[in-house]
Write a structure and sequence with these properties.
Elements lengths: L13 H11 L6 H19 L10 H12 L1 H7 L10 H12 L5
Helix pairs in contact: 1-5, 2-3, 3-4, 4-5
Length: 106
């Protein structure tokens, strides 16, 4: 059964990525997707700055995003001033998407 679970880590952030792609194209984000984006971003930023003070169980998406925030300086800079989806402009969405696609050298 576990063999059927996709192992591709890039799929973990699919919904977060989808929200950014819609914003980049100046589309309208459904409320549930906005809430998901905001929750993942809030948890990820909290994990990246003070991992010992996280309340509750962070989502797998937040954990993956927090790891990328810590590894990719452009992503860290891009999300530093973003507190929620309402603050993301199409240009910011493009910048965050490009940063997410960066590969970290081993």
């Amino acid at each position: 059964m576990l063999a059927a679970v996709p192992s591709d880590e890039s799929r973990t952030l699919e919904l977060f990525d989808l929200a950014l792609r819609i914003l980049k194209d100046r589309g309208s984000i459904p409320p549930q997707l906005s809430e998901h984006f905001n929750a993942v971003l809030r948890q990820a930023k909290e994990l990246a700055t003070t991992p010992t003070k996280v309340h509750g169980s962070p989502s797998p998406q937040a954990i993956q995003l927090a790891c990328r925030i810590l590894e990719i300086s452009d992503l860290r800079a891009a999300v530093a001033t973003v507190d929620g989806i309402d603050a993301v402009t199409p240009d910011m969405a493009s910048r965050i998407l490009l940063s997410l696609e960066e590969r970290v050298a081993p």
